[in-house]
Amino acid sequence: MGVVLNMDGKRNMASVEPLIALTQEEMGKVNELILSKAGSDVELIPTLANHLISSGGKRLRPMITIAAAQMFGYSGEGHVRLATSVEFMHTATLLHDDVVDESDLRRGKKTARMIWGNQASVLVGDYLLGQAFRMMVDVGSLDALDVLASAAAVIAEGEVMQLDVAKNLETTEDEYLQVIKAKTAALFSAAAEVGPIIAGVSKNERAALKSYGTNLGLAFQLVDDALDYGGSAKDLGKNVGDDFREGKITLPVILSYRRGSEEERKFWKHAIEEGASDDAALETAKSLMTKYNAIGDTIARARHFGEIARDALAPLKSSPQKAALTEVIDFCISRVT
Amino acid sequence: MGVVLNMDGKRNMASVEPLIALTQEEMGKVNELILSKAGSDVELIPTLANHLISSGGKRLRPMITIAAAQMFGYSGEGHVRLATSVEFMHTATLLHDDVVDESDLRRGKKTARMIWGNQASVLVGDYLLGQAFRMMVDVGSLDALDVLASAAAVIAEGEVMQLDVAKNLETTEDEYLQVIKAKTAALFSAAAEVGPIIAGVSKNERAALKSYGTNLGLAFQLVDDALDYGGSAKDLGKNVGDDFREGKITLPVILSYRRGSEEERKFWKHAIEEGASDDAALETAKSLMTKYNAIGDTIARARHFGEIARDALAPLKSSPQKAALTEVIDFCISRVT
């Protein structure tokens, strides 16, 4: 079964609440550890780090790590540190991303780089990455270290790929999927996989959680892409049309461009490649997306990956964690439907 | 005994040659590993990485790792990977530094950011850091991982500290030493310490090599600071006066400012804090440094740390590696004397 529909505005939607409830105790410890490990005698570091850390991200990735460890009966404290490492890797990536994308807003607040500059954002990102690795070392699992270190390299690789395809409207859907698999899905994948690793369970369970994370990450990113042309700034914590104004190649653009007429493709080139992306152009872009059902089909693609994530978990024995992680798939997709 | 003097231009100076000779075989493997691990299907990554990697750095840090492992009879292959990790961490730092400092030249070549942009430099730095951690994980020593991960965090911390003191002429010598201890000496220290760690020797030897690395790193940075007001661009691979033009606070500036008259301090404020740092101002700066022996005293400070590095190694039993590492101290200092 696919997405649970939101009818009449009632709260019968798929929800992240079960995951939050299951991981509440450990996430309290994660939050403490975040504050302590983002600390430094160099005041600018905690100030800048906390600006982003306290800005209301959902902490989906660390919750996945916690639940994926609980699921296999893990009873130690290592998952708290690994979850914190995952969140730090995510935060470091956001800090560097905002510099690379020259973004002004993130989750409805000014980006760190707008307040403290690009330089501090690059360096505090580096610091958080170093702290993340220190925590992983503390946990002492070389397997978990391998998965997370590889993810760090792959994420950076994905970001460079994205520079490569930047403003190139001829980018294929396959090429774009490769980019988001690296830049977004790799961390979801690692976050999920380190759960069974630290719980010491078999290869099959590792593979299941890894596949779950990868496909959830792909779905998550595609929904994000759709939201950028659809939701309201309040829901998003970012301005609708940010991707468009930055000339970013995302799936709704790729589909609209490929399906468009010669003349429509000229519009896209003008807007994305030459930067003619004012409000009027954004309206045109949205109407072309409607004409070719580019948003609807982006969400359909997200659902496809959501189904794969669901099936990845299917053979595992029933547990509240399995149910919560499965519901999160629908939750991610229902942000936009 | 201090520095071996260079008389009549003859090659009787302290030299890095013994260290090069001792580590030649392993450094060949390090170079292969560098090329392979800087590789990626994303072409921009090896292109950008190799621009910097092949630009003729001395590879002092990885040579130190190799020699420090050899010294204790290590016979495996792990030191090659750790040495490569150290060089990647160094390269990643340089890529991010050039972005943070907005530098145009590095080792006499255009910086990567001038050719491929700040964005790519940030991201390829992240990629190399991720690859460095993967190699460390391959080696499998949690102790070595701990030392290098801590160094990564401390280096970033030092760079943020440097932003903090940027253009602040009231920075004390102590504060400045704290900055360079973190941003430069931490990696020398880690490079040296992982040698005995992987060779599995006792705490005392680890402490000796760690202290050697730290103090060599401090001496190295202070000599670099002096060279920026002294050497020729050809020797340096950078423009003399780069630090001055960027308004960087380094020890020669700190000493000249603190020793100067009220009026001379006004000159420094104008030059460093307000950016009035043209060629004429550089000449004035140099003459004030001569007046107060700021370069000579910076080198004297470097010698002081060099002596501590020498004494750190002193109790270890004689070996070609000990001799070569000791000679490198004088080599670093004699770059400028």
TrEMBL record, chains A, B:
Gene Ontology terms for molecular function: all-trans-octaprenyl-diphosphate synthase activity; metal ion binding
Keyword Transferase: yes
Domain of life where this protein originates: Bacteria
One GO term (biological process): isoprenoid biosynthetic process
Entry's family note: Belongs to the FPP/GGPP synthase family.
Protein task: Supplies octaprenyl diphosphate, the precursor for the side chain of the isoprenoid quinones ubiquinone and menaquinone.
Protein name: Octaprenyl diphosphate synthase
Organism: Nitratireductor aestuarii
